Amino acid sequence: MEKRKMQARGELALIPLIFVNSFAVVLMLYSGSGISAISSVPYAFNQVFPRISLGTWTYIFQALLVAALFILRKKIHLPYLLSFVVGFFFGIAVDLHEAWIGLLPKGIFFQILYFCISYLLICFGIALANRCKMPIVPTDLFPREFSRITGLAYSRVKICFDVSCLALTVFMTWTFLGYVKGLGIGTVLAAFTMGKVIGWIGDWMDRHVEFVSCMENRDLKRKRYKKQVSFGRI
Predict the structure, then answer these.
(1) What are the UniProt keywords, alphabetically (predicted)?
(2) Over the stretch 101-136, which tens digit does the pLDDT of each residue have?
(3) Mean pLDDT, residues 76-87
(4) Which of 134, 153, 197, 228 has its CA 20 to 30 Å from the CA of residue 161?
């Protein structure tokens, strides 16, 4: 007998996702282990051009990712535009967390603790974002959609995306600052393992939770309409 899954609304997950994931990104940087791979590119630009905040560089980077998805799909896709709106508020949340994160205590024990918490929060947040059937932050959206468009495994795409972000960060900081900044052992560890951990957490969610949302209903209506139009032409 198949176990009945718990049903959850994707809309209720969206706002907590924005604030929790942005907090996890800032907490990983505060831990001293290095910034997360998905935020390393905005961080590098922020260090080179510090007059623009980390949050602002974050949604500039996300806008470029959305534009890349438009090119890959060869059309403007509405959910991607909504994803950019989510990314805009994510960038604001990053700046808000940066304003108070310095109040947390420091020390080697706390730094290890902060890294572990931030790592797990980011993994859980991305796995949840990929399943809540709502527009998600473009840095999470891009690997998922690239995987769907190309047919490549998500874990492989995610790792390649993270490593590419790190490579660009190294290039930016080394070229303009004369040294590599923002990357640490935690950044490298996360880049090479996070895709797998997200997959494990996602598999667990798939076995226990089924998400429904207003966006899902809209997509179903659009598909039915297209089928009716196609049938009418036959």
Answers:
(1) Membrane, Transmembrane, Transmembrane helix
(2) 999 999 999 999 999 999 999 999 989 888 888 878
(3) 85
(4) 134
Q: Under a CB-based contact definition with an 8 Å cutoff, are residues 51 and 163 in contact?
A: no
* DSSP conformation class of 179: S
Global confidence as pTM: 0.74
Amino acid residing at 47: Q
Question: What gap in Å lies between CA 143 and CA 159, rounded to an integer?
Answer: 9
Q: Which residues of 63-90 are buried (b: 16+ CB within 10 A; e: fewer)?
A: eebbeebeeeeeeeeeebebbbebbbbb
CB proximity list for 28: less than 8 A, separation 6 or greater: 34, 35, 36, 114, 115, 118, 119, 122, 186, 190
Please give the Cα distance from 213 to 165 (Å, whole number): 31
